[in-house]
Amino acid sequence: MNKPDQSSVPESYRSGPDENGHFGIFGGRFVAETLMPLILEVENAYNKYKDDPEFKSELSYFSKDYVGRPSPLYLAQRLTDQLGGAKVYFKRDELNHTGAHKINNTLGQILLAKRMGKKRIIAETGAGQHGVATATVCALFNLPCVVYMGAKDIERQAPNVFRMKLLGAEIIPVISGTATLKDAMNDALRDWVTNVEDTFYIIGTAAGPHPYPEMVRDFQSIIGIEARAQILEQENRLPDTIIACIGGGSNAIGLFHPFLDDSSVNIIGVEAAGFGIESGQHAASLTGGKPGVLHGNRTFLLQDGDGQIIDAHSISAGLDYPGIGPEHSWLHDVGRVEYVSVTDDEALEGFQLCCRTEGIIPALEPAHALAHVSKIAPRMGKDQIIVMNLCGRGDKDVFTVAKALGVEI
Amino acid sequence: MNNEFTSINRGKNRIEKKFNQLKAQNKAGLVTFLTAGDPDPDTAQRILNGLPEAGADIIELGMPFSDPMADGPAIQLANLRALGNGMTLQKTLDQVASFRTLDNETPIVLMGYYNPIHYYGTQRFIDDAIEAGVDGLIIVDLPPEEDEELCHPCMTAGLNWIRLATPTADDERLSKILKHSSGFIYYVSIAGVTGTHSAQQSDTSEAVARIRKQTDLPVAVGFGIKTADHVANTVAVADAAVVGSALINTIAEGLEAQLSTDEIVTNLHAFVAELARGTIKN
Q1: Domain boundaries, chain B
Q2: Which of A19, A192, A232, B107 has CB atoms 3.0–4.6 Å from B15's, for a disulfide?
Q3: So what's the pLDDT on residue A155?
Q4: What's the complex ipTM?
């Protein structure tokens, strides 16, 4: 982990990005000229509506009555007992409608798209969670939805593909490049550049050109805002550690952001180490990548010695992205957040531990966070508190897990 | 023009010389785009070396990238072929340097995405590109908002910064695009990726007129130009026409038909010669 240079410690860790979308040297607007007017239009609209009382009230209404917010902050007592150290709380974002945190963001973006008069929604998806969350809000607001998904991911995630179709979305298989999430994002950008008049691109993670990293973070920050209020109410104090898994990093930045200026809170992001960092087959952009420019922002990327993007690997399709949101790159650089990584095997252990001790089948993504919790909780005192974001449920992953465990279902 | 970067020595600028020369001959320019290293480095060098004789006035070379977000299927596949056969940014510069031992007149513009240059090191890249004999850069994902990254260092070093102007730009946006542009303006005639549909001549004509109101730089028009007739229609309103995907398709078709390297090279140069016939102004 980088040690912060004292002279560069900002007054607040919550004031970014600057007006050009930079978090330190990260972020920015690295897109084709054709898209620039559209990006600026999204930025202007977002700035116009983000504090608009009517916008906020509509978002809050759907968050409560449609999504089911606030999600509970739940003391995982049996897990706590088993680990024998710090008290472990789960932020239950897996209980949201559609089963993950993704809908917090798609709801916010579609309300914005509607106000901008857009008639068509596009999205990229890897595991299909963001695709499902986008298809869901498109059904709700009666807008046509086109989802770009890597041909390989379509094969791996058949149930989510069918869910999206049931919700009325059109799924476009992406065969370009390596036919995975990064290529789905490329093809979504190609669609946007072609349909500039009427289309809104709902990006699923806190990455992409400005203002997406900021906007997605803001919509996901409801997680941390609730968790902070809930822990203060339940424990009358802030947690010692908060922890979340990171692919692009939207659930993590949503939990982290409201806590960034609470200096007593230790913040940990967990990347996917796949078969191990040393194997070269992983999705840990911060641990194993270098700064570069892709998909509209400067951030840490998995790349080779010629600056070509390398495919990520993780057992969890939702973490399988060769980049990471630019705010995470900055928080890594200034040392405010500690970023660690967890392998496929460790995540599988965490997955089973959660099932057996708490009766909750978690998604493989937060199983990475849980695996790290199981490493650190035993070393912490019983009076200490960990809050972990349980950002998705694991129904979608049972086939993957069965296969990994050598079980035929 | 509104341009505080004066170090580009316009007298020695191959691009400016070329456009002046064309004007004197009452011709427009044919700009050929090919992906460096496609289909493989050796064949690509042979193709490159023969382009001026075939009729290319300005050569655009795509720097291969794994994630060419603004390109259509033809150029995407060309990138993958080149990378699959071991092409790198360093080899692209080497091919330009090798070309320059044969031809010191034809302008070469490198086009591509920022990340490989970012990884290579921006200042090192600028120095090496100038050394190799590159005349300008077109970097798709560096809009004016990110000028400090590469545009300003390029202009300081005397490397032309060629910008894409698009149908989505209004006059205010256009002036932002034209500021700090040099060499020529590349008007992207459609909103979309490379190698798809073609623009209406009337739309292009109107857009080029709008650009000319704000700049004296030559205007090249590209995207969707596939035949000598398209070239002729385009140069009726512009100073040059850019052909890319259609050329690259002849390579792909040659590979598909399992033609020999000689045949692929010959076919490509023959197609360039045919396109060049569209550049003679009446």
Answers
A1: 14-279
A2: B107
A3: 85
A4: 0.94
